[in-house]
Specification:
By secondary structure, the protein is an alpha+beta fold. It has helices at about 5-25, 30-50, 75-80, 90-95, 100-105, 120-125, 130-140, 170-175, 185-190, 215-220; strands spanning about 110-115, 150-155, 160-165, 205-210, 230-235, 240, 250, 255, 265, 270-280, 280-290, 295-305, 310, 315-320, 330-335, 340. Helix 1 (about 5-25) runs antiparallel to helix 2.
């Protein structure tokens, strides 16, 4: 006789088995494939179980029941399931290794995206599944606040940053700099389509998987300079009519009016690289910061730091004055990024 109770139990086990296996598979599996596998398993296992000796069927020739791993092949599903590890469910619940192609080094490819009104680099990066710093680096963005509408952005097929080769660099030494991101020479070779490991100073390489340092990232996103003093902006950054000549000239910084003797604070931590007197800026201080930034404080009444000193954000560097070419007590505050002036107002908290 056919043991229908046993058949139903076997069908339930088959279904659970395939669902457990396929749900943890790294690729999407259709319901149709699940049904096909279920039917094929039923045809094989149910036939063996339904006509097993326990159900009144005949024994295989030779007088022995077939069992998993026996000479005659597999018996019912209960026996066949013993070929799986005893702790299969526990192992499967921990997941399976990712496909090799997910971590295999890839050649750098990119598509183009046009900045739209309301776009931000952070949102674009999220939409394409990338780190914000990847888009900053690949597109040479030094300030994410001033990326104009209509700007063409490169969208790469993987995360990473651009690196300019220095004298003495090798693929091995570059990979070592970014070893915490699991960068290796071969991945750099493949990403950049290099046929040999020969690289030259000033070559630009894509370092797959690497990220900008927190300081570099902060330098691009802005919002990190303190106001050196509190006061009214008396002359903004950009072109203006010179109060001395009446001609249209470019104002390289931002003038902030404040009473004589007001303490001036370092806008960011850094190294004082110059402190002295200039005919135009009077008593001045220049501080070098991370990520290629420098700040300049001019027309000071008194200088309170020396070249070579390290100052923290908010530390006293001098007092407001009217030295040099000046019309009254104020601070001339300028910001430079990699040797070029920037609008300080866009970077102040």
């Amino acid at each position: 006789m056919v043991d229908y109770t046993k058949i139903r139990r076997i069908i339930a086990k088959i279904s659970r088995f395939w669902r457990s296996l396929l749900e943890n598979h790294p690729f999407p599996v259709s319901g149709l494939l699940l049904r096909v596998l279920l039917i094929c398993s039923m045809v094989y296992f149910v036939q063996a179980a339904a006509f097993s000796p326990a159900g009144g069927g005949k024994k295989p020739a030779g007088g022995r029941e077939r069992s998993a791993g026996g000479e005659g092949g597999m018996g019912g599903f209960e026996e066949a399931s013993s070929i799986l590890p005893v702790n299969f469910e526990q192992q499967n619940s921990k997941g399976v290794p990712e496909p090799e192609e997910y971590s295999r080094p890839r050649m750098l490819l990119y598509s183009l995206y046009i900045m739209q009104s309301g776009d931000t680099i952070g949102r674009i990066a999220k939409d394409f599944g990338l780190n914000e710093g990847t888009l900053f680096s690949l597109n040479g963005i030094s300030n994410d606040r001033i990326v104009p509408v209509g700007e063409e952005l490169k969208i790469p097929n993987q995360d990473g940053i651009m690196y300019t080769v220095k004298q003495g660099d090798t693929l091995e030494s570059i990979a070592k700099k970014y070893e915490k991101y699991a960068v290796d020479p071969r991945s750099i070779l493949i990403a950049n389509e290099l046929f040999t490991g020969n690289i030259l100073p000033r070559d630009t390489l894509f370092i797959p998987g690497a990220q900008l340092s927190p300081e570099e990232h902060l330098g691009i996103t802005g919002n990190f300079f303190l106001w050196p003093i509190r006061g009214r902006i008396t002359s903004p950054y950009g072109y203006r009519v010179s109060p001395f000549t009446g001609n249209r000239t470019f104002h390289s910084g931002m003038d902030i009016g404040s009473p004589l003797g007001t303490p001036i604070k370092a806008a960011m931590a850094g190294l004082v690289i110059a402190a002295g007197y200039d005919a135009t800026f009077g008593n001045y201080v220049i501080i070098s910061h991370h990520a290629g930034y420098r700040t300049m404080y001019g027309h000071m009444n008194a200088i309170r730091v020396k070249a070579g000193a390290y100052v923290g954000a908010g530390d006293l560097v001098g007092t407001v004055g009217s030295t040099g070419l000046s019309t009254g007590a104020h601070l001339h505050f300028a910001v430079y990024k990699n040797g070029r002036t920037m609008n300080p107002r866009l970077l102040l908290r």
